[in-house]
Specification:
The complex is a heterodimer. By secondary structure, chain A is α/β, with parallel strands linked by helices. Chain A has two domains: about 190 residues, Rossmann fold, CATH 3.40.50; about 170 residues, 3-Layer(aba) Sandwich (Dimethylsulfoxide Reductase, domain 2), CATH 3.40.228.10. Helices cover about 40% and strands about 20% of the residues of chain A. Chain A is built from 19 helices and 19 strands. In chain A, the strands form four sheets. A nine-stranded mixed β-sheet of chain A has the order 5-4-17-16-15-6-7-13-14. In chain A, strands 10-9-8-11-12 form a five-stranded parallel β-sheet. In chain A, a hairpin with a 5-residue loop joins strand 18 and strand 19. In chain B, a hairpin with a 5-residue loop joins strand 3 and strand 4. In chain B, helix 1 packs antiparallel against helix 2. The relative contact order of chain B is 0.29. The model of chain B has no long low-confidence stretch (mean pLDDT about 90). Chain B is about 25% helix and about 35% strand. Chain B is of the alpha/beta class. Chain B has one domain: Barwin-like endoglucanases. In chain B, strands 1-5-2-4-3-6 form a six-stranded mixed beta barrel. The chains are: A alpha/beta, B alpha/beta. At the A-B interface, helix 2, helix 5, helix 12, helix 15 and helix 17 of A face strand 1, helix 1 and helix 4 of B. The structure holds iron/sulfur cluster. The site of iron/sulfur cluster has 13 residues of chain A, from helix 2.
């Protein structure tokens, strides 16, 4: 990868005072990666983001050029060169470096980060480990019956959301992909689809459902196995099912009849499953149910992914190392072990002695023991914004925003790669540039040529 | 009063917008620091919006936070809701049970009143 290949999508030059329109720009705020946004740009400021949802508008309208320094060392402004040198020294001095984040960076930058990790025999992990990491484990155990969001739009007539609230997390999910589109086999759009929401709260998404099933918290595993048993035609004790799941047995029976009668069923699942006790066992149950349903009709399952390029991170780390997240290179070859090489554990167990965070905020989102350890070791942070993590970093790089200032490739939540169309240039370097510079210095320190 | 609840952190629109607008801005900070309690639970426990409570988790981890009333039909009694962020993460433990993922939803917590809203005015 050369820097030229990522510059293919460099933003076009702006003329002061003139309105520039970027058609079909890509929103990378959430995993929907909507690629139909028309941006109006004036004086390096996005003044309008047509078709973007409330989250997308907040994303586009709040990333303007700022005059903050591109590099801080121990909180003081420094040159980029000094920052690259210090970063390379931190990473090569450590015995147990960890590189974490990556889900809000383009694939080209992710690739360089995994390369650095390989050179320094470190651990690389992405924010997947604290969102759909358990799903990643379940995919390996059960397999994945899947499809693209285009197929959902054109075929899906039974759309289920389990432990997922897209009305607030992916606001255009319903209109662009899953409920409203008029498709080839669902010509009447919403009228041709049945929507089911299963959750412990009556979320905003429940309002869009034909059927809302409010179940007992922490009983996803039991509820999903109830459905598996019904799919197989096994007998169950109705009272026990009601007691365990908090839902009448007849409701589950009715749901199963509808699922069997569907032509193309989809279960979108969220962190209600993966973050709750049971974690990968919950997701395994859901994937196994989906597999079972294919004895009756066509059914697929899809995780609703959060960050704009978290799916890209899974793909890049997989094709670089063979594993999707939580990969350790200490022995010179990749090893995968969630619970050991995942960042929450590496930090809370006080194992890492240096690190680099890229487009993530563990100082705000991790458990207290993990935060305390991160704050005690030297680390480098790359982010577009000032965060608790950049404030605690030994070296903090303020980077250009992917999709707004830089090009590159991101993967939509259904693994479809989408090229970015940036709007205007940033005075800050891209994370690809920063990581490439750090990689060059790391290689020099380690005496690696070529 | 000390009672056991199940804490469900989750995404909200204001929390999502706040990430882009700036995590040190009031909108984001206000959103991630408001604990929603079901109106039925508030009435039963004599709690009022703005009261400050302490949540304590299974390993003794605790936070203090102000409460707000959850929408009546959204939040069932016995559940507490808070937008993802600093406070919700402080209630996670370091243990991921071999999964890499700390239990971040469906956490058993106790809730006790620390300070009445009026007392701070
Ligand atoms: S749904 Fe997601 S990707 Fe689409 S505009 Fe909204 S935030 Fe952006």
């Amino acid at each position: 990868m050369t820097s030229a290949s990522i510059e293919v999508n460099a933003p076009t030059a702006s003329v002061p005072g003139e309105l520039k329109i970027i058609a079909d720009a890509v929103c990378t705020f959430c995993g929907c990666v909507c690629d139909d946004i028309d941006l109006h740009v004036k004086d390096d400021h996005i003044v309008e983001a047509k078709r973007a949802c409330v989250l997308g508008k907040a994303w586009f309208l709040n990333h303007s050029v700022d005059d903050s320094p591109s590099c801080l060392i121990e909180g003081r402004p420094a040159t980029l060169e000094a920052g690259y040198d210090r970063a390379a020294k931190i990473l090569t001095d450590g015995k147990y470096p960890i590189i974490y984040g990556l889900s809000d960076s383009p694939c080209e930058a992710q690739r360089v980060a995994v390369g650095i990790c390989d050179w320094i025999s470190g651990t690389v992990d992405t924010t997947t480990s604290v969102c759909h990491g358990p799903s990643g484990m379940a995919f390996q155990g059960v397999g994945e019956v899947t499809c693209s969001l285009g197929e959902v739009a054109n075929r899906g007539d039974m759309i289920m959301f389990w432990g997922s609230n897209p009305a607030e997390s992916h606001p255009r999910h319903f209109t662009k992909y899953s409920l409203m589109p008029k498709g080839l086999f669902v010509p009447n759009g919403r009228k041709d689809r049945t929507c089911v929401v299963v959750d412990v709260r009556r979320t905003k998404s429940a309002k869009a459902a034909d059927i809302f099933i409010q179940m007992k918290p922490k009983k996803d595993f039991e509820a999903l196995w109830t459905l598996r048993a019904l799919a197989k035609g096994l007998e169950l004790d109705p009272e026990l099912v009601h007691r365990e799941t908090g839902v009448e047995f007849a409701v589950w029976q009715d749901l199963m009849e509808r699922m069997k009668a569907a032509k193309f069923g989809v279960i979108f699942f969220g962190m209600g499953l993966t973050m709750t006790r049971g974690k990968h066992a919950n997701t395994e149950a859901l994937l196994a149910l989906t597999r079972d349903m294919n004895a009756h009709t066509r059914f697929v399952a899809k995780p609703n992914r959060g960050h704009g390029n978290v799916t890209g991170a899974d793909n890049v780390v997989s094709w670089r190392t063979g594993y999707p997240f939580g990969v350790n290179h200490a022995r010179g070859y990749p090893r995968f072990n969630p619970g050991e090489y995942t960042t929450s554990d590496v930090l809370a167990n006080r194992e890492a002695d240096c690190g680099m965070t890229i487009a993530c905020d563990p100082m705000a989102n991790f458990s207290q023991p993990a935060r305390e350890h991160l704050a005690s070791i030297p680390f480098i942070a790359l982010d577009t914004k000032d965060t608790p993590t950049t404030r605690a970093a030994a070296v903090a790089f303020s980077v250009a925003t992917y999709g707004i200032n830089t090009g590159g490739t991101v993967y939509r939540m259904d693994d479809v790669p989408i090229p970015l169309r940036p709007a205007f240039a940033s005075p800050h370097p891209s994370d690809y540039e920063v990581l490439t510079q750090i990689e060059n210095r790391v290689k020099k320190i380690l005496g690696i040529t070529g | 009063m000390t009672e056991t609840f199940i804490l469900i952190p989750g995404r909200t629109t204001d929390q999502g917008c706040g990430i882009s607008e700036g995590k040190f801005q009031d909108k984001y900070q206000n959103e991630i620091r408001a604990l929603q309690v079901a109106p039925g639970d508030m009435a039963r426990l004599g709690l009022r919006p703005g009261d400050r409570v302490r949540l304590t988790g299974e390993e003794g981890q605790s936070v203090e936070v102000c409460i707000t009333a959850g929408k009546k039909d959204e939040l069932p009694e016995g559940l507490l809701f808070i937008a993802y962020g600093d406070i919700s993460s402080r209630m996670m433990t370091g243990d991921t049970h071999g999964s890499g993922m700390p239990t971040s939803k469906g956490m058993d917590v106790t809730m006790e009143l620390v300070e009445r809203a009026a007392q701070r005015e």
